[in-house]
Write a structure and sequence with these properties.
The chain is of the alpha/beta class and 415 residues long. Among the domains are: 35 residues, no CATH class; 238 residues, no CATH class. It has 14 helices and twelve strands. Strands 6-5-7-8-4-3-9-10-12-11 form a ten-stranded mixed sheet, sandwiched between helices. The chain has a two-stranded antiparallel sheet with strand order 1-2. The longest helix has 24 residues.
């Protein structure tokens, strides 16, 4: 921490302290900490259709982030019943991770970690990034799930609302319970009348003491830059013969909304930040397989422009172990300044040759999913844990291992 030296000179019988040391008097240097600087405000976009109204209504209704008055078309009883359940889950999550895990992550994450976070395979899970990196100013999540159309919250009737909120509690509830979710639930959420991914992100903000202040949808240009969608562009996408968004994996559920709502940017602020300090979360609905990143390289160009970043991955179905995900794995190894993951992160066989060291926490014997058990990478991880010092992990982080034990690994460049 920066410190400033304050020179104190004490002069006897003086009405005012002298402005310079008094000859013959001892000098005392008192070191006091300089105030921590506020995070720099993230520039606000001036282009694109603004969905802030929808974001704030979803924050109230789906994420139960406040008790603001409800518009007439929203059934207050339905919302109250939903929020009773959601707030109980949020409290349990906060007790376990935000409060209970704070000391662990404060000790684990270095002070010089970049404030930009990239979270591959992070479907619906901005909450974990905010717990691990509470000072992040930019978070990017990437997954097969698309953000979703927020406009239906402005016209939904009581029956639709009750059905949608009940389905949402099943589809994204695992994120609040154990910090991860199943592929089946995430896939099904693409057909909710409410935007399940956006709602999950807003729940993450509510649970960690943040609130949304802006929302826009965007696409990536060929060079990886962001283009915010204007109203006429959204309308043009929806007027096409096949208005539904393209599902990102063949066995995934087709979304019930258009491609215009695939990628979202949510501007948010921490409740105790200065009013002008705004942070940003972007979610991109993208398949990270090699074949897709080769055919659609805009995402990789977008990520590479960020330079060195903090990273995290968990509950990622061991995809980073596979040959078909080499491109995203190589990007991660080339750009991570520091990374936290469960065993679905980067295996030792790839990390060590790239000059990385890995530090283990908790216990790992074998992979959680049967199809990855007793494989080369699982055996390498088990060896890494056996040969590393025993370090406790006080909570579950992503997948358990085959023996139902929590585990976590840090991957970082060798110092």
């Amino acid at each position: 921490m920066k410190r400033v030296a304050i020179l104190l000179a004490i002069a006897a019988c003086a009405d005012e302290p002298p402005s310079h040391p008094v000859q013959g008097m001892p000098r005392t240097e008192l070191w006091v900490p300089e105030p921590e600087p506020e995070p720099e405000p993230v520039p606000q976009p001036t282009a694109g259709m603004d969905f802030t109204r929808e974001a704030k209504l979803l924050f109230r209704v789906a994420a139960c982030g406040n008790d603001d008055p409800l518009p007439p078309h929203i059934d207050a009883t339905v919302v109250a019943d939903h929020c009773t359940l959601i707030r109980a889950q949020m409290k349990a999550y906060r007790d376990r991770y935000v409060v209970g895990g704070r000391a662990f992550f404060d000790a684990l994450v270095p002070d010089d970690v970049p404030p930009t976070v990239v979270y591959p395979f992070g479907g619906g899970d901005v909450i974990s990034a905010l717990v691990a990196f509470p000072d992040a100013t930019e978070i990017t999540t990437i997954s097969l799930e698309l953000a979703g159309d927020p406009r239906r919250i402005t016209t939904i009737d009581a029956a639709q609302l009750e059905e949608s909120l009940a389905a949402m509690r099943v589809e994204i509830g695992g994120t609040l319970e154990v910090g991860s979710n199943t592929s089946e639930n995430l896939s099904a959420s693409q057909n909710n009348d409410l935007p399940a991914q956006v709602s999950s992100f807003l729940m993450g903000l509510a649970a960690t003491g943040h609130e949304p202040v802006g929302m826009r949808y965007f696409r990536l240009e060929d060079d990886g830059s962001i283009h915010y969608l204007e109203p006429d562009e959204i309308a043009a996408v929806e007027q096409r013969a096949r208005a539904r968004a393209k599902k990102r994996k063949s066995d995934w559920t087709s979304p019930n909304f258009s491609e215009a709502f695939a990628h979202v940017e949510i501007r948010f602020r921490k409740l105790d930040d200065a009013p002008g300090v705004v942070r940003v979360h972007r979610h991109l609905g993208w398949n990270l397989a090699d074949s897709i990143l080769t055919a659609e390289p805009q995402l990789l160009r977008h990520l590479e422009a960020k330079g060195k970043v903090a990273m995290m991955t968990k509950g990622a179905s061991y995809l980073l172990w596979l040959n078909g995900f080499r491109t995203i794995r190589d990007y991660m190894l080339a750009h991570l300044a520091w990374m936290v993951s469960d065993s679905t992160g980067i295996p030792p066989a790839f990390a060590a040759p790239a000059g990385m060291v890995q530090e283990t926490y908790g216990t790992y014997r074998d992979a959680f999913l049967e199809h990855s058990q007793d494989s080369r990478h699982s055996r390498d991880f088990a060896r890494l844990w056996r040969e590393s010092p025993k370090r406790p992990l006080p909570f579950r982080f992503g997948y358990l291992d085959a023996g139902k034990s929590p585990h976590l690994v840090v991957t970082r460049p060798q110092r």
